[in-house]
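TA notes. Do not distribute before section.
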Amino acid sequence: MTTSDVQAPSGAEEPGEHNEHSRKRMVIHAVIALAIVAVALFGVNALFATAPGVAKRQRPERRAALVEVVAASPKQIELHVRASGLSLPVESLQLIPQVQGQITSLHEDFVPGRIVKKGTVLATIEPRDYRLAVQRAQSAVAQANATLALEAGNQDLAQLESSYLEDLVPDDNRDLVMRKPQLATAKAALRSAQVAVQQAQLDLSRTRIVAPFDAVILDRDAAVGRLATQQNSLATLAGTDEWWIRAEVPVQELVQLETGSTAKVALPSIWGTVTRPGTIVQANSQVEAQGRLGSLLVSVADPLSIRDTTPPKLLLNMRYEIELAGKTVKNAVSLEPSWVHGDDEVWVMDAEDKLAFRTIQVALRSADQVIATSGLAAGERIVTSRLASPVPGMKLRVGDEAGAGKPGVSAKPKAKE
């Protein structure tokens, strides 16, 4: 029996049919698995939807920002500018002798820190040489007077001779015959001798070195026996009648000040709350190169309290705080610096309780206040609170915790009567 005579058993599947059945079973199994997952998800959602106590969340409404406000109250305000400056004397000089010589004496008050009156002889230079010079000059005057007297006699003789020789003397030589040049020379010599006496007496007086004004001695470089010359200073003096304080202030504040206005000078670290009066003697006098600061002078009379010992004494080259009385402005509002934002903007709460911006005109700005002369109407509610992201039109509210019991704080502007 050959191989071709053997047949396959009855009912056996061919290989292609077997693969087709396997694929169908896999598809059926995948569909059943997806259906089970879908039913499970549906059941979970239904369970949460029907569970008691579960409510749908809603977005909360945005509440208005809680702020503090102060009603704007325009009024007449006298501006006060605060500055600081160094003190300096109105009068000061280096005391230099006008003649040379050995110092023979010094005044007992010729000491640094002492006060001397005008005309006090502070030092004396050896005067004997200068007295001798005066005597020599006086002798020269006497000799010149004698020469002039002799020449006057010669004039009489020349006049007599001229009367006899009048027709013989040419007109060009008549002055010589009359000895007029000789007379003019004698008179000039006398005048010169008299001037020499005045100069010698002046030099003698300069051996007494005196204080030219009421002064305080700042330093001294003189001693008995030392040679005083015109190249060396003996002392530095500062006047005591008046001192200045030179201060620098911003230009926008300088224009609010006027010459003659009053000032208060303070030194809190030493004087405490005590102040001394002063007067602006020069405003708008000088502006620095950058143009941001201007200088002014404040005068303080009797700075060393000589005439009145009650006020504290000033010290030279000490920095003082100054409060300067400026101009008076009308319809001005005083603001705290923290209420002003950006380019001079103020936040206000409008009639609809919404945020609005107002641009103000600043008349004076300092560390503790800003004076606005325009931009705010009477009664407008100024927002004094800080806002993280201020936007015009955002809703605002004033709560009890923001303004209860505080003067000037109100939730609504007062209605006009």
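Switch to the second chain here.
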Amino acid sequence: MKDKTSFLKDLKELIAIRSVQGVREEDAPFGKEVKRALETFLDIARRMGFTAINHENYLGEIVCGEGEEYGVIGHLDVVPAGDGWSSDPFVLTFRDGNYYGRGTTDDKAPTLLCLYALNELRNAGPFRRKVRFFVGCNEESGWGEIEYYRKKGGTFPKHGFSPDGDFPVVYAEKGPCRVIFEIPYRGAFRSVRGGVAVNAVCAYASAEGPLDASLLKKHGLTQTGSVLESFGKSAHGSYPELGENAILPLLRYMKDCGEAVDGLLRVFEDRSISNTGNETGSATLSPNLISQTEDRLVLTADFRVPAKMRAEDFLPLFDAMGVNYTLIKGRDPLYVPKDSEYVQKLAAAYNAVTGENLQPISQRGATFASVFENGTAFGPEFPGEDNHIHAPDEFISEKNIEKMYAVYLAGLRSVIL
């Protein structure tokens, strides 16, 4: 990789910015730190000589070349760090061949790698397409920048990719939704809470209530004063099987104490949703947030709809659970035929760099690729690897920085030169 020293310096600066969604301010719709991350990235682009546009601190855009448009879109916001890190999540830390920090894989480093690759290609000769490179600021918390940009009359190219999924190239993505389950509750437990984001498996849940040493041991809970604590393992909400949800043992403890929480337990234990799908994959349901009001318990789940299906197709299955729920539809699933031109070009670029012979895949995560009519996700995770996205100790390996850069360079070259 050319300019690797500069890349690592820029990445260090971006990782140091705690660009978790914050309190809205007049000129910072997603908080001051997210705004700072956007300004920093656009300054890097300007230093390289690109034209960079700040769409009122909602969305950034870098433009170069002439001709038919092609798009790239990444994001600079991150999920909360949470607990359990081996080093400061906002200090880029090199250890055992890996660079650790929140955003090293999702999505600061891949987005920055694409910018560096685009710069190398631009310096090598004229583009045959106009590249519009977008950087988002609210991907993890609702896509507010996309809604704002479109309401203001903004448009996106017909074709493009997002470096926020899996390699070799993703032709189908699930549609992200939320389901809020509620049960009436005025029982013996208080301050029931858990989770940091709907799209991250809950790693910590707690409550105050009856203490039973044998049941604490049975369910693996701990006690700190009057507080019951459940510790799990976080993971991306679209891959709940990679984590350990801390809410479930807490609910089981409450049930064993005689509490009427069976409805919420059915959300965890029912398999009808996850057994429904098609050739692009099955649905996923991951209950990642729990809270308590004066008279009820509220469980919020990340729900992913397979490509070529609709959220409404699952209503009979949710009805059969017998729990009061509200389905909040998100974006429709993404689907681009495997044999379409740009899918095949990106797959060929990946295979040429890696020496593999992999076919386009579907994935559970939903990315900004769907802002393009024919959008795909293109990396950054390589097959069989887990970079701890949305979990403690998120990282990118040193060897993958080089490999990823080579793939993005080849992929961009194939579609714009």
